[in-house]
Amino acid sequence: VELSQVLATWRGTAHCPWDTVATHFSAYPVMIGSGTLHAVGYAMGIQRDKAADPSVDAAVLDFHGDGAMSEGDTNEAYVFAAAMKAPVVFCAVNNQWAISEPTSVQAPTSLYRRGLGFGIPSVQVDGNDVLAVAAVLSAALDHARSDRGPVMVETWTYRTGAHTTTDDPTRYRTAQTDEYWAGLDPIVRMQKYLRSRELIDDDWLAELDERAEQFGAQVRDAVHQPDPDPVALLDDVYADPTPDVRADQRELAEWLQGGQ
After folding, report:
1. Residue 260 pLDDT > 60, yes or no?
2. What is the pTM of this model?
């Protein structure tokens, strides 16, 4: 999926401009927790494909935040995943804060214990350890692909910045806490590890900085995209637009032509 396509989604200039089938990458579900239901539904579809063709070797990886664990959708998804032994891995990114609410208010215990309560094998991993996360998720996906059912992984990390552009984390977090987590920065840790193994050096990092500058320029260019046709956007509501949607499109087109 191209970065420009992802940015178009977040800017609202497109619903989902990439081919979800070809890329194996779902459209972004904006409603918190709703993606867990989509993930389990897709995983149940994989089970049916595999029943018809045993060579099918796939599983679904779903990411959701700690706040989503308080949503009904997520709990319902966990129920179905466990009951159906769906090939899905839930990765709960626990960054300690669901907007301005600490995880400790939502759950008196670690989030991975909730997964255990549904009968789903669950584990907590250091979310700031790149290699640990890669190893755990790889093992979890192998488990799901081998018809052994779902897995839940809680990645323990921290949101260093604001939740949104209107959020001010200084109102509910201390500078001391931010400083503590800054010492666990996963990028810095990975860099130190690679240096200790003599896999990178100053020249390599200097080249990386140049690539990062070029990448930043590409991101800024990709953000500037034309506004979409509001009428055409409604084509994506259903695979086959209903009469109601077509009527809405006609009404919207008439309003855009003469009602503004």
Report:
1. no
2. 0.89
